[in-house]
User: What shape does this take?
Amino acid sequence: MPFFDAGSEFLGFELPHECGTLTFMSARIKSPPAPSGHKIAAVAISHHRLPLAPAFNASWDTKPRVHFDATVVRVTTDTGLMGVGSGDRMLGFEGHESLFLGQDPLALERHFRVLSNIDFHYGRCWPLDIALWDLAGKILGQPCWKLLGGLANRVRAYASSGTLRDPQAQADAAERFLAQGFPAVKLRFQRGDWRDDIRALEAVRARVGNRLELLVDCNQGWRMAWDTQAPWSLKDALAVARELERLGVYWMEEPLHRADHAGMRALRAATGIRIAGGEMTRQLHELRELIVGGCVDVVQPDAALVGGITGLRAQEYHIAFTPHTWTNGMGVTANAHLTAGLADAPFFEYPFDPPEWSLARRDFMMAEPLQADHQGWITLSDAPGMGYALDEGRLLATRIG
Assistant: This one.
């Protein structure tokens, strides 16, 4: 049984939606729970850097990536238990540790509010929320997917590519994903001219036919700090959408700037392709505006970057929830628990694009990588918490700062 059932209630409201009615439900504690018998004794943060040779040429980054950074958060109790999380860099958290020390680790709503305040003033510190959920599972002896609702213990992964290949090489990669059992693959755009992107997509469709669902990430929602290229206009995005319709693409991700809600609404009304977005939407109210405003068919907040698990455990009906999750294997695992426990997601993002983005690179901080099986399923265990373990030797070897 989800441990939020006791002493909690669901507050719901309905809002008009272009495809019917959107019901937004949010779980909130209405009375303080009984003390858990544990107190937070320490919050420790370490930073790690894995050199990448050869470099990883991410489609969304104009600079080759010669290293991969990961931040690990450990929350320990006075009873000797430890929860672990990872994701963003925890910038701005230093000096706020005292806000959590001595607190009951199961007071997750209280901790969420403190982290939300820190997020407003400083940086995205949501990996701490993930560590607290891992700890909650260990205290209660339950996997997080059960604590979050227990809808399912598995999610169907799609292979999320990260690099830009020529049409022939892109088709070869898609064929490899198909042979490994993935039901879908996400291809990246950003080759400079979208017509070149379409040629790569055409090559993939010609090679795999309808044996793979194809998803497209246009990467127009945001830029790296040094990238000043303007995003597409609505007319650009609509021209691309027409081509994606012709090629039977399942969804079109981030086709416009993240703040162009009017453009997303208009694009969604003009095309039959599902519009996806919201992966790095900073505040939960901005995410709600995307949903309520009828801007997207698929909402993609990442628990490691936006609101943590606590903030995202709301359920939106008549809209697909399938989180963006491109941090590392621990962040992917946390999002998998959230999705399995709460949502009927059609697909779940699984960053995997070897050799440039392998499991050895993505999950270097973990004792065992998060694997998808021969049919693309990620099955979560009954181990308490998140079910992952750290590779302490690798973390020691890669520690920086």
In short: The CA atoms of residues 86 and 135 lie 13 Å apart. The longest strand covers residues 40-56.
